[in-house]
Write a structure and sequence with these properties.
alpha+beta; Pnp Oxidase, Chain A; 4 helices
C-alpha cells in the first residue's frame, strides 16, 4: 500500500512535534514483542521510490536480529494523546544486510538521509560516517501495509 497524502501529513505532523521519536515493535522467536524507542523518518525508498518509514539501527541489536528472522514491524508515532501506526514488511540495508539493486557504496549517503529525515543534524559528517561504519549501522525500511490510529486528519 502506498501512503496517502493525508497519512503522510499525519505522520509528518506527529513526528515533527516529538522530534521524530517513535516506538518500533518487532517479534521475538517466541512471538512476544520487543519494543524500542527510535528516531524514525519518512524517505523515498532508494530503489522503488515508494514512501517508507526509515530508521537507523546499530549493528548487533536485538531489533536487527529479530527483523532478519521475521521481517515485519510496526512503528507508532505519537504526540500528546494523538497517535498513528504503520505496519509492514521490512527491508534492511547495511554492511551485514546487502539489498539486491542497492550499491554498498551508497550506504553512507543513505544513512545520512535517514538521519536527517528523523530530525538529525550533524556538524562533522566525516566523524558521523566513521562511527556509522564502526558500529555497522543498518537502515530499516518499513513498507506500509496497514495504517491506523486515533489521529485527527
Amino acid at each position: 500500500m502506498e501512503l496517502t497524502t493525508t497519512e503522510l501529513a499525519v505522520l509528518e505532523r506527529l513526528g515533527a512535534r516529538e522530534g521524530w521519536l517513535a516506538v518500533l515493535a518487532t517479534s521475538r522467536p517466541d512471538t512476544s514483542i520487543q519494543a524500542s524507542v527510535v528516531n524514525a523518518g519518512l524517505i523515498s525508498h532508494p530503489i522503488s521510490g515508494e514512501r517508507v518509514v526509515a530508521i537507523v539501527a546499530r549493528g548487533g541489536t536485538v531489533k536487527l536480529r529479530n527483523l532478519r528472522q521475521r521481517p515485519t514491524a510496526s512503528v507508532v508515532f505519537r504526540s500528546g494523546g494523538e497517535w498513528a501506526a504503520i505496519e509492514g514488511q521490512v527491508e534492511l540495508i547495511g554492511p551485514d544486510d546487502p539489498l539486491d539493486g542497492f550499491a554498498a557504496s551508497d550506504l553512507t549517503e543513505l544513512l545520512r538521509e535517514v538521519f536527517r529525515a528523523a530530525g538529525g543534524t550533524h556538524d562533522d559528517w566525516p566523524t558521523y560516517d566513521r562511527v556509522m561504519a564502526e558500529e555497522r549501522r543498518a537502515v530499516i525500511l518499513i513498507h506500509p501495509e496497514r495504517s491506523y490510529g486515533n489521529h485527527r486528519g
